[in-house]
Write a structure and sequence with these properties.
The structure is a homodimer. By secondary structure, chain A is of the alpha+beta class. In chain A, α12 packs parallel to α14 (about 355-370). The first copy, chain A, is globular, with a radius of gyration of 22 Å. The interface of A and B includes residues 351 and 389 of A.
Chain lengths: ~625, ~625
Amino acid sequence: MGRVLRVNLSEGRVRIEDLPSEDVLRKWVGGRGLGVYYMLKEVNPRVDPLSPENKAIVATGPLTGVTGIPSSGRWCSVTKSPLTNTIHDSHSGGKFGPELKFAGFDMVIVEGASEKPVYLWIYDGKAELRDAKHLWGKDTHSTTDMIREELAPVVGSDEAREIKVACIGPAGENLVRIACIINDKNRAAGRGGHGAVWGSKKLKAIAVRGHMKPRVANEERLEEVALKSMDIIKKSPVTSQTLPKYGTAALVNVINAHGIFPTRNFRTGVFPEASMISGERIADEIMDWKMAEEEVCWGCEIKCARYTRLVKPPFTGEGGGPEYETVWALGADTGTSDLYAVTKANYLCNELGLDTISMGATIATLMELVSLGKVPKEKLRGLKVEWGNGEALVELTWRTAYRSGIGDDLAEGAARLAKKYGAPEIAMVVRNQELPAYDPRGAQGHGLAYATSNRGGCHLRAYMIAPEVIGIPQLLNRFETKGKAAWVKEFQDVFAALDSLVVCKFVSFAYWADVLAEQLSAVTGWNVTADEFRKIGERIYNAERVFNILAFGDGEEYDTLPKRLLEEPMPEGPAKGHVVKLSEMLPEYYSVRGWVRGRPTRAKLEELDLKWLADRLEKEGLLPA
Amino acid sequence: MGRVLRVNLSEGRVRIEDLPSEDVLRKWVGGRGLGVYYMLKEVNPRVDPLSPENKAIVATGPLTGVTGIPSSGRWCSVTKSPLTNTIHDSHSGGKFGPELKFAGFDMVIVEGASEKPVYLWIYDGKAELRDAKHLWGKDTHSTTDMIREELAPVVGSDEAREIKVACIGPAGENLVRIACIINDKNRAAGRGGHGAVWGSKKLKAIAVRGHMKPRVANEERLEEVALKSMDIIKKSPVTSQTLPKYGTAALVNVINAHGIFPTRNFRTGVFPEASMISGERIADEIMDWKMAEEEVCWGCEIKCARYTRLVKPPFTGEGGGPEYETVWALGADTGTSDLYAVTKANYLCNELGLDTISMGATIATLMELVSLGKVPKEKLRGLKVEWGNGEALVELTWRTAYRSGIGDDLAEGAARLAKKYGAPEIAMVVRNQELPAYDPRGAQGHGLAYATSNRGGCHLRAYMIAPEVIGIPQLLNRFETKGKAAWVKEFQDVFAALDSLVVCKFVSFAYWADVLAEQLSAVTGWNVTADEFRKIGERIYNAERVFNILAFGDGEEYDTLPKRLLEEPMPEGPAKGHVVKLSEMLPEYYSVRGWVRGRPTRAKLEELDLKWLADRLEKEGLLPA
């Protein structure tokens, strides 16, 4: 049986408890799924996300840190988001996740709030809260180094560098709604402002080190599926060639060529200077391949990690990244083709603890607000907040983390920013979360995925770009709406289960539910079929929706997109003339989901063993008739 | 009789009391002098400057805000400095000083420390402490705006913009030892880390507004001396032409032409690109004359204020400055000729609350440390900390204010930085305070002034550049050492008295002790002669030295200069081959001062009516035999 570390910050106590019964585990698995389960059981969905009543869950899954399972070096944070007010999970790579498991814990549940800054130290099955007064205010890199240094006497100075640290930067401390949690210095549980939740609890960091081995029920079966999995990954050109060579930013030129590379806050889908911020240019010009090798996630053979070095002023530095989403958000979305400025802002996001997607998109929103004359001049203190000004990226990143000047408004995210300055419609968000790097006017299914994402604007609930653009597992007509609903549901469900394993979504370019179910079976000893695996995902997706319904009345009115995507045809390029025909897809989506006006029916919930959630909805008058 | 506002932050109480008796006032006058008097009476000189036992004094002088007295729009902060451990006064212009007087107070004495952030609101003779939780973390511009906004209902919204605010930025909050106090958004009580003292007391700001009129004993006599003073100012080319036209940075080309413009941390005195950061270029290229008019200090006719605007990326913005010392420290001293980067860093110093001289000089120190291979590479995170890199200025300013990464070391100032990285000798400091913009190897008297400055490296205790370079009141041979001691003493004494009036030192380019004594007499009704005026200054200078002796055993061993200035001949230019021949001047200086080994004798102290200080020194065994 696995173990849960429960940390009550209000009382300053840690307690070890067992994972739920196997029956519950088989329904929720781990990671995202189990996180949602705990949140529904223990947290009032209407709670203020930044209050002590919210909880911050740090979870691994059954596959985390299991040798032989490809790309299982991840972990997941689950909480109610201060950006979206939804249930929210955010995932990250690096080495922290496996280390948490090696230290003896599957999950950490942080509740309450401390009066004074603390950090949690977990070491070979034991845990303690430690004073973090001296760490408060420190950036994520300094925090990591300082923790390693002060714990060196405990673990031995040779081993100190093996301590893995997840922490928040100044942005999280300052309750910036787009603050992330950074682990291993350059890895981010980025989206949804989880860093602000830690900040509200005065939880600066979690440091882990351990020597235990994850449980595996059937070693033989594991070996078999491991070999098979790795074989598929090595045969997939995406996972064996494109990602290792060019990283995620390999997508820049591909997506731009399809005319759906959102440019200047989604005003167009074509960025003429895309090649300046492409994965190819990164690889050719600024990669430090030796350092990148060290950045690779635990046990990963795909190795998409980037580590770069800028040696040409005015923007210099070194660090992890940039990823595809980052060069898009800080680059094309702000009209900036200066790879150096973009990468520099990326470094700062990592150090200060900011989500690069939301940061870039929020800056882009400000740039559009300024271009529309909506922002009083004195607010900007002469900073040239104009499309393409790399300095603005760098300065506004600083300002956001510290809520300095206009940064105080940027810290609230694009939706609240645009609303404050009188143009809410230009915030390119779903459920207040900034949309990522694909303009759905040229990928209809992806548009449906955005609109129905239950953690807000997101490409990781359902990555319809795979079938609609890349052709995995097959190429669909991206401008077609019919039939996309079922695809979106399949992605949402399988990804929800995958996120509960916990493994990297990049394996989904190589294999799908059947292989994942086999992996899960080998490690747990269960016999999970691909269909049961899908069902697990569907259960999770529905449970999350229920959380949101209870939280703020989620439903059809939130399953929408910014006006720009629904009403303004793409002005140029290969997707010219298209809008997202959401109204053609939503009814079909609700139908395949068994939902009514964006809400699950009792029948659907009971089919998923979620009668208790149907009862809760009914009690609050939120169950559809 | 004037009034003192005593604010006890530990108790959260304010109390109004009278100024000391006229007898005491005539000895100490106001501002700096009276500040030192209170500090000696009330504060143990050995106290930790950042402890509640230190006090922070905000003072005007008898001439502050008196209509007709030229350049009387200043105020002065007195405290024990966390940078130098000496008694320290720091002065600032703008409009805050007169407003404090119009609000009914000559002086504010802040003692103790608050548990929670507060600000002090002074309005027409009344005062209260107000919660500043929402202001904590805010930059100085936001703080000013927010205070004005929240007090608008009190003073009326038309008058809210007339509220004058002195405050600290994040640097002060973070106890940065080179943090300043900023008033009127762009004016700094810059040197000595007074901002950190406020930060340690959790005093975010002092806001003032008033409608009272300063006392004037003899209106007729005032009118007479006012006309006379103004006449002299209008006849002086420095105060009537150079300063209004080119600001203080008019000095750049002059000082560089003399080969004493310290370049790359004083490695040479010639900066070939000086004209790029000159007052002329500022005036031609980035001045906003209309805004500069608003920035002029209360009642000043010299109008040296700069307000500039940068519209060319990568460095854009607008704000007050840059001054001569700033373009030097952030420019030549770091080898940077990029006026835009320098000015941008200046804006950030103002907003974040950092002393531009110390900031630039500390960055220059880091650059030299890096060039010497003293700083581990990973400390810099790839930032190109190299002579001339403008980005480094900007980024390191942010990092210093927030103690992020290497900024945590920069925040300690040049002396502690250089010591930490194993090269204390390269810190260009006196008593741990960074030297300003004149290389004394080509101005011997100025070197003596640095060495004997009792607030640490400073050009404002004795500005020997006036006689040694500018020729005011007469041109001295700058390479000569003989006779300079008396000049330095004269400057130190007159400036100490002038700092107690409180007026701007720029009037000293036009008139001297006689006129100042007349001004003081007109306002107070005393009959102060030029000699009495000098004596007041001498008393203050000696009292300050006594404070320092009691604080850390100040004396001859501290009256020195960095090795570079004493032993390394200037390598090039008009001052080539020279070092500072301090040992030739110091004995003469001690002799004219009546000091022995850097400490006043009983005879000298008694001559200055400071028997009580002689007694204190004797009691502690610190009185020279």
